[in-house]
Design brief:
It is a single chain. By secondary structure, the chain is of the alpha/beta class. Helix content is 35%, strand content 18%. It has a single domain, classed as TIM Barrel (Alpha-Beta Barrel). It has helices spanning 30-38, 52-60, 82-93, 112-123, 140-145, 163-166, 190-193, 206-214, 229-241, 246-259; strands spanning 7-9, 16-18, 20-23, 43-46, 69-74, 98-103, 127-134, 151-155, 179-183, 221-224. β3, α1 and β4 form a beta-alpha-beta unit. The termini are far apart.
Length: 264
């Protein structure tokens, strides 16, 4: 397929995805999750806080199982418990397998025993792909350069744009690169409400934050953490409006510098 602003291939997995992903942690109503799916959102992240409404929405999408990517996260720091963590989540969702097992918040190289545990789970048909998330930007090219990880999650937003120096220039060629998923597009809401943003500077919306991230072609998916149906619509609006102009990017960078405590 030809990648566009709203669709991408998830790295070397070859899976076509919407460039907006949706996560479970913030209480979004189940109907809004299903609405997002109807509009093409198919990277569905059953992650840190597994809300009942979100789980119900995933179960309701079971007839369309081949059309979405189910991501299940584990924070386990014992490789022997990865299977327990994954199987418990699958039982709750009443699904036979996950597409992606995401190893949450690894800020150091992954011990080999975790890879061995993943491959055992994959051999049992419980999962297809392995992902890892990190806040250590300089680890991302290392994670991306080998064949261990199919997808890498990392922080990127206008207040924390360091990926532009530490990650994007150091990635392998596109056909050898894992899928790249950015999180915290709003900098945990700081870009929307921080008093550090000068009064003469328009305050970004969530839509603006998502467009900023998606204007980088290296990012396959920008995660969203909606709490309401309106938040979902803001994310979908980002897809409709397309990439930012150079003027818009400059404005977002100025707002981001203000939030991060640098000169605006």
């Amino acid at each position: 397929m030809i990648c566009s602003f709203d669709r991408a291939v998830l790295g070397r997995t070859g899976i076509e995805v919407c460039r907006i992903g949706i996560s479970a942690s913030y209480g979004v109503p189940g109907a809004a999750v299903e609405r997002a799916f109807e509009q093409g959102v198919n990277y569905i992240y059953w992650g840190t806080m597994r809300r009942a409404e979100f789980g119900k929405a995933i179960r309701n999408l079971a007839p369309h199982r081949e059309r979405f990517v189910l991501v299940i996260q584990s924070y386990s720091r014992m490789a022997s418990l990865l299977g327990f963590s994954l199987e418990r989540a699958l039982r709750e969702l009443r699904f036979e397998y996950a597409d992606v097992l995401l190893l949450g918040m690894w800020n150091r190289p992954l011990p080999p025993r975790y890879l061995e545990a993943f491959h055992r789970l994959k051999a049992r048909g419980l999962v297809r792909y392995l992902a890892i998330s990190t806040h250590k930007r300089k680890l991302v090219p290392e994670f991306a350069s080998g064949n261990d990880f199919d997808i890498v999650h990392f922080r990127y937003n206008a207040a924390h744009p360091g990926a532009e120096q530490d990650i994007f220039p150091h990635l392998p060629p596109a056909d050898a690169c894992p899928g790249l998923v950015a999180f915290t597009a709003t900098s945990w809401g700081q870009l929307l409400k921080s008093r550090k943003i000068p009064r003469d500077l328009p305050r970004p919306t969530a839509t603006d934050c998502y467009r900023f991230v998606l204007s980088r072609p290296e990012v396959d998916v920008c995660m969203t953490g909606p709490a309401t149906a309106e938040h979902v619509e803001s994310a979908l609006e980002a897809l409709r409006r397309g990439p930012m102009s150079e003027e818009e990017l400059a404005w977002m960078r100025r707002a981001g510098r203000a939030v991060s405590g640098k000169a605006a």
